[in-house]
Task: structure prediction
Amino acid sequence: MASQVAKSLLKVSRPSSTVKFDSARRALSVGAALQQKKSLPDRTGKNVVLVDGVRTPFLVSFTDYAKMMPHELARHSLLGLLQKTGVSKDVIDYIVYGTVIQEVKTSNIGREAALAAGFSEHTPAHTVTMACISSNQAITTGIGMIAAGAYDVIVAGGVEFMSDVPIRHSRKMRSLLLRLNRAKTPAQRLSLIASIRPDFFAPELPAVAEFSSGETMGHSADRLAAAFGASRQEQDEYALRSHTLAHEAQQKGYFTDLMPIKVEGKDGVVAADNGIRVSTPEQLAKLKPAFIKPHGTVTAANASFLTDGASACLIMSEAKAKELGLKPKAYLRDFTYVAQDPVDQLLLGPAYGIPKILDKAGLKVADIDTWEIHEAFAGQILANLKALDSDWFGQTYLGRQGKVGSPDLNKWNKWGGSLSIGHPFAATGVRLAMHTAHRLVREDGQFGLISACAAGGQGVAMLLERHPDATTN
Result:
């Protein structure tokens, strides 16, 4: 193309030979610049890279993982990461792990999983929680540690295990039991036992509602979809798209981050996500509203399901990766966290995070080659897309002159998403990162954007850039 441009300039203007040469040279230079996108600058001074990552199969809760404990699932992801990368446990400086619904016995699950996986007792580990973006937080915590020069090699991951969650006694019963433990005489103990009432025995389940609003996330999704005019049909169509694309990716062997695991008591190995189900529009339309009855639009089919799973990834400086002979998948270029009204804007994290990270990097919507956005609900995704394409939202809530713009859906969650693959809360962030890195290679892209909403009205946005050594293995 550059040579054709140069020839046309020479043919039309017929200048002197010196001018001809200069014109042709400029044309070639401009052509090359147009064909090559700019690289994003390194903000850490370390060129932090995502070397590789793995995940266990994501399973519908109460299926094949039901008898396990969460740290065992996390252990499998850690061992799988070591196996895939060939990195020795001794090379790992620090482990950061995310989880949301904590098993009481293993509250610092990062440490317990590391010990169970055979890591040195001298390898420190801690656990973070930030709802559905917990493993994003684990990754960015690792980036900060590397940028600060504190550590060189970090494992970041997350695990969620909804097949077994802690159920507490009521507060009245807990108070009584604690006082009973401190009672010094039989009479005091008998007096406390005599004070027990039937309502003391009512258990406390883990909250499915936002603490600040008392509202379930499903109710919020229903109201958000209504506010942005996302119809039931649109939501069902989006859910069907997610399952269809996930099924195609699964059949084509694109989920190379997935590591089969052996589960005690099960024949063979667990080797695939089991929540991907391609239905029909007619079947989806038959389902009744799950939260706001009878007029709501969120159903069991267009909402993410309870999922068990774990993930882990390896991050370090590019120089360290070269020293160890590793070929990274992507540069971890930038990230930002956002927070907004936890009542009316609970699930709008991407609509706030995406423009913020794009502005920070000096990029436009059209510059992004792959979008990997967490699908909590189909209605939540549609609401965020409509918000990004709304002049009113851009002016009213983002302080912009107009809309951010609508991403190209041909580049959006091309391998499905949380609606179909599953959503083990704290493990999803690593999956988003690995699918971004692998899609950039398969789709010959350069920049990938990850974003997700989270409980509490928070969200994350991250920018990855394809590494020249990246493969999809």
Observations:
- The chain is about 40% helix and 15% strand.
